C-alpha cells in the first residue's frame, strides 16, 4: 500500500494523535471515511456515465453504418435464372 508498512502507519497515527488530540481524532477519521466514500461513489458514477455515453455513441454509429446496407438489401434486384439451358443461352445471345 504505497510503500507504507505497519511501522510507518503507527508513526503517522502517533503524530496525528499528538497534533490533533485524542478528542478530535475520531471525528476526523469519521469525516475522512465519509469523504473517501463520497469520492468513491462519485468516481463510480462518472465511470458509469462514460460507459453509457460510449455505448450510446457506438449504437448510434452502428445504426448509421447499417442503414445503407439495410437499404441495399431491401432493394429489388431483377430475377435471374440460376441455370440457363443451352437453347436459352443461344436466344439471349441473339437478342
Percentage beta strand: under 5%
Mean pLDDT score: 79
**SS elements, strand count:** 0
Task: Report the radius of gyration as a whole number of Å.
Answer: 36 Å
The general outline is rod-shaped
Which sequence of SSEs, written as H and E, runs from N to C? HHH
Write the layout of secondary structure elements.
Blueprint: H1 6-20, H2 25-74, H3 86-94
In short:
The protein contains 3 helices and no strands. It has helices spanning 6-20, 25-74, 86-94. It starts with 5 loop residues before the first helix and ends with a helix.
Walk me through this protein's architecture.
This protein has 95 residues and is mainly alpha-helical. The chain has a domain at 25-60. Helices cover 78% and strands 0% of the residues. The chain has helices at residues 6-20, 25-74, 86-94. The mean pLDDT is 79.
Annotation keywords:
95 residues
